[in-house]
Amino acid sequence: MSDGHLRYWGEPRNMMSIANGKVWQVEVNPGEVEAMTQQFVVIYHMKQGDKVRLRCLSSEKPDHRAIEVKAVLEDSYLWLLKKQDHEQHQ
After folding, report:
1. Number of Cβ within a 10 Å radius of residue 62
2. Domain ranges across the chain
3. For the whole model, what pTM was predicted?
4. How far is CA 50 from each of CA 33, 41, 56, 57, 58, rounded to the nearest angstrom?
5. Residues 45-90: pLDDT tens digits?
6. Cα(79)–Cα(31) distance, rounded to whole angstroms?
């Protein structure tokens, strides 16, 4: 549910499949983080030594260094919200 609209009706375990193929992890230099957060929905970021690990949502591979990771329920929820936001701004 978002803004009073139902975005998904079904079992939560089945909802995870909505974000399959759309969740990516990439390690970037600290100076790249801002640009990535402006281009993609960044779910979280974490410092890893001299790099920053990002988990983000994108329908296509966001960077040549990105690897696809397994979607969890939160990813699917955020993907549905992103899709709604995109539809409202068209």
Report:
1. 19
2. 18-88
3. 0.77
4. 13, 22, 19, 23, 24
5. 999 999 999 999 999 999 999 999 999 988 998 888 876 443 433 3
6. 26
